[in-house]
Amino acid sequence: MKRASPPNFDQPAFKQALGQFATGVTVITTRAASGQLIGITASSFNSVSLNPPLVLWSLATRSASMPVFRANSHYVVNVLAASQLELCKRFATVKGDRFEGVSHAEGDTGMPVLDGALAWFECHNRSRYEEGDHVIFVGEVERCGVHENAAEIAPLVFQNGQFHGLKPL
C-alpha cells in the first residue's frame, strides 16, 4: 500500500481549513473510580453506525482526563443547545470541579446526563484507536434521549473559531 505524501501546508493553514467545517458542540461526561465527576467539551463527535448504534469522538492524548476516559466502561455524550454556551466554556476551561453548581441527572450506568442538553447518548466504551496526537473513542449507544422541545431549540455550533446558533434555511 502506498504511503501518504508529506503535507504541503503548515499547521496554521491546516487549522484554518479545519475551522471552516461547522460542528456541533458536546460535553462528554463520566465518573472516575473515586466517584469524581469528569467532563470535557468536545466538537469531534460523529455518528458511525445505526446497527449497532455507534458514535465516535476524540480526545487529545495529553488531556488530564484521558486516564479516566480510557479506563471507564461508560460515558455520556451531551449535545449542547445554543443557550448552553457558558456550560461549554466551563467544561473547556474551568480547573477544579467543573460540575460545581451544574444541574445533571444520573443515567442508568451512573454517568452524568446534563440537564437541558439538546440530546444525549449513554455509551459503552466499545473501542479506542490511537491516531496522531488524539485517541478516537467509539461508543456503543445503550440509551439516548432528546430534549422535549428539541424542535424549537437551536444547537450550539462551532465554526471558524466562533460559536453560533443555527436557524433553518
TrEMBL record:
<keyword id="KW-0560">Oxidoreductase</keyword>
<dbReference type="InterPro" id="IPR002563">
    <property type="entry name" value="Flavin_Rdtase-like_dom"/>
</dbReference>
<dbReference type="InterPro" id="IPR050268">
    <property type="entry name" value="NADH-dep_flavin_reductase"/>
</dbReference>
<comment type="similarity">
    <text>Belongs to the non-flavoprotein flavin reductase family.</text>
</comment>
<dbReference type="InterPro" id="IPR012349">
    <property type="entry name" value="Split_barrel_FMN-bd"/>
</dbReference>
<feature type="domain" description="Flavin reductase like">
    <location>
        <begin position="18"/>
        <end position="165"/>
    </location>
</feature>
<protein>
    <submittedName>
        <fullName>Flavin reductase</fullName>
    </submittedName>
</protein>
<dbReference type="Pfam" id="PF01613">
    <property type="entry name" value="Flavin_Reduct"/>
</dbReference>
